[in-house]
Amino acid sequence: MQLEIRPDPAEVGRARKWTRSRLAGSGIGADEPVAETLVLLVSELVTNAVVHTGCPAVLRLSLPEPETAEGATLRLEVADACSRAPVPRWADGDATGGRGLALVDGLADRWGWSVEGDGKRIWCELDRCDPSEGAGAEQGGGARCPEPAFGTHGSYGAYGGFEGFEGFEGFAYEAV
After folding, report:
1. What is the 3-state secondary structure (H, E, C) of the chain?
2. CB 170 within 8 A of CB 156
3. How far, in Å, CA of 50 to CA of 39, rounded?
4. What is the pTM of this model?
5. Short-list 59, 64, 9, CA closest to 32
6. Alpha carbon distance 53, 7 (integer Å)
């Protein structure tokens, strides 16, 4: 499923609303942490496309069917017609922007980007654990549902930046 995005900041709110409606149809509750995280990631990536490219974009979601939602992977992609690569920025403590890719790296289980036609596609994935098992609970086959790790994914040091992930040193973000 996909949504075409105009290069207008008002489109970010429309993308969040569209995402929430698609989540409801996939059997994922709006109050589940994975739903809230996905909506935040949509907001960040659509904002980046609208603000930094000035080009139309396409938001794509790959969500599980309701009967297979438990333990599934949710995928989000934003494709735009701008060929410039995404560039992480340094954000001072008082800056109101510049943390989007650090948030994506901290919240998504996986993310990346690739060339698509004359533009690019930025994607990220979230793994959904069975909500009835609870965070940290044992699941079938000995697999564990990981504890929430806001601010720790990607070896993010609380004060020192991304360890072993060059190019992101000194990034900071706030949990909101």
Report:
1. CEEEECCCCCHHHHHHHHHHHHHHHCCCCCCCHHHHHHHHHHHHHHHHHHHHHCCCEEEEEECCCHHHCCCCEEEEEEEECCCCCCCCCCCCCCCCCCCHHHHHHHHCCEEEEEEECCEEEEEEEEECCCCCCCCCCECHHHCECCCCCCCCCCCEECCCEECCCCCCCCCCCCCC
2. no
3. 16
4. 0.72
5. 64
6. 8
pLDDT in tens, 17-35: 999 999 988 888 888 899 9
Q: Which residues contact 25 (CB under 8 A, 6 or more apart)?
A: 63, 66
Bridge partners for 113 per DSSP: 122
Residue type, 133: E
Report how far residue 47's alpha carbon sits from residue 108's, in angstroms, rounded to the nearest whole number.
17
